[in-house]
Amino acid sequence: MLLVFTKTVTPRLRYIFDFFIKDLMGFEYQITHNKEEFKSFAGARLSYGTEAIDNEIFIYSEKLLFEKGIEDQQLSVFEWDGVKAMFATHPKYTIPFDVFAASFYLVSRYEEYLPHLRDSHDRFVETESIAWQKNFLQKPIVNIWAAKLRMIILGRFPGIKFLQQPYRYISTVDIDNAYAYREKGIMRTVGSYAKNVTELNFAQIAERTRVLMRMEQDPYDTYEFMHELHAKFKVHVIYFFLLGEYGENDKNLPTDNKNFQELIKSLADYGEAGIHPSYASNKKAGRLSKEIVLLSKILKREVTKSRQHFLKLRMPNTYRHLIDADISDDYTMGYAGQVGFRAGTCSTFYFYDLDLEQETNLKVHPFACMDATFKYYMKTDVDKVMDIVKSLVDEVRAVNGTFISLWHNESLSESYIWKGYKNIYRELVEYAHH
After folding, report:
1. Quick check: 49 and 61 in contact, CB under 8 A?
2. What whole-number distance in Å separates Cα of residue 182 and Cα of residue 259?
3. Predicted TM-score (pTM) above 0.70
4. 381-387 long-range Cβ contacts below 8 angstroms, 24+ apart
5. Could you tell me the sign of the dihedral formed by the alpha carbons of 35, 39, 41, 45, in that order?
6. Contact partners, residue 320, CB within 8 Å, separation at least 6
7. 214 falls in which pLDDT band (50, 70, 90)?
8. Which residues is 407 bridged to in the sheet?
9. At 236, is the pLDDT very low, low, confident or very high (cuts 50, 70, 90)?
10. In 3-state terms, what secondary structure has residue 16?
11. What is the DSSP string of 171-196?
12. Is 302 exposed, middle or buried (0-12, 13-18, 19+ CB in 10 A)?
């Protein structure tokens, strides 16, 4: 056990100690305010304050964990032991920065509560983040800090026991558009034909016709490929289904379509199922709960997992709405525009509501990369995608974190813009699974 001395315990401090010391470093710990008890303790000791007490591991505390409210933080990023660090204290200390304040700043998404620019989809943009600006977005920096501090503690107190979490891989797949041509209904099909004619896209007219006449498989029907691949490597997979009403940014099939319902139930037999809250659900009251109820009725079981369509995430409103809708696990934490670690970690953490100054029961599962990010935002050459994926997997594996990928059924179609992405996903699963 690790005994920690600190004069004051705040909700912020307890939250980040639980995550950093217990979840990431793997130590059981207790907090004491009694200096004599701390001095006489024979085991591993760490103090967090403004001055060291004895021959313990000492971390100088900045103000962040003892403040209330949200204020602009003056951040200076520097190098420490080969990795970036912030909330610098003094070079004379073994750990020359407040690692707990720095971790809290990233994991709580403190910067997303501060004034910032948002993109056309009303999303916090990665270029506004300290991780992107200081070039550490593609490192799970909080996990790296935890691993380094654990080694320092073990070096000083070799007898302390810790629980090492194993590396894990989870594949997550968003079903935004179950089929390219099938099950669309007469009006949408006629409209699509008309659009193809206007654009002189005769290849798509021919393909659509072959699919509708059952002469060819729908290009977005990549489900058997996924099932065989996931089964081969024993991959844990979660499918997220878009069930929103048809709109400009919500274009899946009607939820009363029996074949769509059968597809949902079939995929849920092979993996877990979650709701993909529609674009419109962010602005129209009641939509989120309605969509969750729809999926629950189709599956005949409770729905507790989610990921926002278009990764629309506004702190803290989005998470509060999910909590109100009885969602326990969310997989939205990541950027559309860049791969990497939005919250600085590759481990599951609980959402801390900064406005209310309290830890919630909502588990946040950060993902590291998305197919659309490579294609639309980073515009990565197909033959370079796996180089980036492998570097991310290696970073996560090095700290025994959880690597989560985000893919879409349509990007496995090998049609049009997605040429090569089926093979990329196959390589990704094979490389990441263990």
Report:
1. yes
2. 10
3. yes
4. 382/419, 382/420, 382/421, 382/424, 383/420, 385/424, 386/424, 386/427, 386/428, 386/431
5. positive
6. 353
7. confident
8. 173
9. very high
10. helix
11. EEEEES-S-SSTT--HHHHHHHHHHH
12. exposed
Burial (CB < 10 A; 0-12, 13-18, 19+), residue 105, is buried
Provide the 10 A C-beta neighbour count for residue 57.
Answer: 21
Instruction: Tokens 């729905």: give the residue.
Output: 303
Determine contact, residues 298/260, Cβ cutoff 8 Å: no
Among 378, 380, 373, 388, residue whose Cα is nearest residue 431: 388
Question: Structural domain boundaries of the chain?
Answer: 2-156, 168-180+218-432, 186-215
| 168-180+218-432 carries CATH number 3.20.20.370 | yes
Residue 396 has φ and ψ, to the nearest 5°, of -70, -45
Pair 176, 251: CB distance under 8 Å: yes
Rounded CA-CA distance 148/144 in Å is 6
**Segments in 300-344 forming alpha helices (H):** 317-324
Residue 342, Cα to own-chain centre: how many angstroms?
Answer: 7
